[in-house]
Design brief:
By secondary structure, this protein is of the alpha/beta class. It has seven helices and 13 strands. It has a single domain (about 5-245), classed as Class I glutamine amidotransferase (GATase) domain (Rossmann fold, 3-Layer(aba) Sandwich), CATH 3.40.50. The strands form three sheets. Strands 2-1-3-4-13-12-11-7-8 form a nine-stranded mixed beta sheet, sandwiched between helices. A two-stranded antiparallel sheet has the order 5-10. It starts with 5 loop residues before the first strand and ends with a helix.
Length: about 250
């Protein structure tokens, strides 16, 4: 058991979605509740964080769309974005273990100068993700298949990475599925925490959020039942095993 817990910064306002995400991170990262502290930052401000208190930081997915104009963002989103930017100032400065999933691509990417827009948005699906040469030798992807499926569903993505970022995984529909900054800062466009049950729960919760057209739920469920996403889950366990402070 890690002496210092991991931290999950969560932004989902819906209790069912937030709790389902937390449970998914616990299950697929192999952590107990005492080992993964969650802060629901849509509800409470992010406190001042000291890296010495934590083994690593996760950022989960979000209903927020970071690339929309500022005037279309609510006060909560603007606060969360400003607070996450301060967290990223800290973790990037000291190269502290960080893994952002989906929304984490936009937050870390924007912080590092990536272009984030709707060019490579993906519907709810399980695309084939391919590791790059750098991904094949990255320790966080040890044991992850060179080609694997993972669940996605997002309105924005990285369309251009800054030169100092390392591309680790890509897909035909989204050229930046995972990248690294420095040595210990990671972000994935796909959801390493999602399994079929979790995906369908989110489909029902976000049925009116514009991620899919009315009447597509049955087709999504058929797609999800046929997908094999176990390899993507390995990434979370690798993060814990690599960075847990015992």
């Amino acid at each position: 058991m890690p002496v210092k817990p991991f931290l999950l910064l969560a932004t989902r306002p819906e209790d069912a979605a937030a709790d389902g995400e937390y449970e998914a991170f616990l299950r697929h990262a192999g952590l107990q509740e005492r080992e993964l502290v969650r802060i629901r930052v849509e509800s409470v401000p992010i406190p001042t964080l000291d890296p010495a208190d934590w083994s690593g930081i996760f950022v989960g997915g979000s209903p927020f769309t970071g690339s929309i104009p500022r005037e279309h963002k609510g006060d909560t989103q603007l606060r969360v974005e400003a607070e996450l930017a301060r967290v990223l100032d800290m973790v990037v400065d000291v190269d502290f273990p960080f893994l952002g999933a989906c929304y984490g691509v936009g937050t870390l990417g924007s912080h590092q100068g990536a272009s984030i827009d709707g060019t490579y948005a993906e519907p709810i699906s399980a695309p084939t993700v391919e590791l790059t040469d750098a991904g094949l030798v990255d320790p966080l992807l040890a044991g992850v298949a060179p080609v694997f499926q993972a669940f996605v569903g997002h309105k924005e993505a990285v369309s251009r990475l800054p030169e100092h970022a390392v591309l680790l995984a890509r897909s035909a529909s989204c050229p930046v599925q995972m990248f690294r900054v420095k040595t210990h800062l990671y972000a994935t466009q796909f959801h390493p925490e999602l399994d079929r049950t979790g995906l369908m729960e989110r489909v029902r919760i976000y049925r009116d959020a514009g991620y899919y057209e009315p009447g597509e739920e049955a087709a999504i469920e058929t797609m999800a039942a046929a997908a094999t996403v176990d390899s993507a889950h390995r990434l979370l366990r690798n993060f814990v095993e690599r960075y847990a402070r015992y």
